[in-house]
Every structure is written in structure tokens, then in C-alpha cells.
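Now read the record:
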Amino acid sequence: MGRIVPERPFLTLRQVANWLGLKKVDSVLALIHTGQLHAVNVASRAAGRPRWRISPAALDEFLDRRRAVLPEKAPPRRKRVAARVTEYF
């Protein structure tokens, strides 16, 4: 599938939240912690507070997995004819 997200080196949590239309950055953090959205910790110390960054490719993959797939249109149903019925009109 083609690129959905604009090309940038890495996106911050706030940028991703704004781009997805989410009001809170905590929603993006929840997606990261559940493994639905892949992110990279760019903090200088691993034991310190994490500084998450999301690559545009990871955001594209996330959006592709969440894309709605419309079901195929069912063929029209055939009218059922009752057996042994005599129509008078």
C-alpha cells in the first residue's frame, strides 16, 4: 500500500496523537504498551524516563492493520416460490 503518513525522520507522541485526531498522548502510549504501535525509545539512559519516537513506516503499518475492510456485496436473494400453491389472482 502507498505511503499514508508524511515523510519525516521520526514523529513524537504529540505529533502522532494530533495526526490521528486523539486528544491525549496517553492514548498513543497505550497503543505502544499493548504492542499495536511500534516505537523506539531514544532516551539517553535506558533506566530513565522513556522518550518514544514513532517512524512513519511503523505508523503506516499500524494504519494498514486498522483499515476497515468492507464486506463483499451479497448477491440478491431469489424469491421463494411456495410449493403446491394455486394463485387465483
